[in-house]
Amino acid sequence: RAKVPGLPATFSTHLLRYTWNDRFGDAAEAVGWSADQERQVRNLHQGWTPTSKQGDQYQRRRNRKRGQAISQRLQAQATGRDVK
Fold first, then answer.
1. Rounded to two decimals, what is the model's pTM?
2. Number of continuous H segments (helices) and E segments (strands) in the chain
């Protein structure tokens, strides 16, 4: 960080990996890929073996976020709040 002024204190290469995987998952969903297709291509692009289970960690994270968003939407509907 000392060599690149202005980098946020929270910046890390691991954060970039999470961001890439989130965006990649969104794009795969947008084009209608199955979870298996997404996993295979994710493994390829991340440099993991074709049978690696590492991509499952990112898929679980995405599923958890989607589940939370759906739960919040349902709670908002149940309480009469605006749903976005």
1. 0.72
2. 3, 0
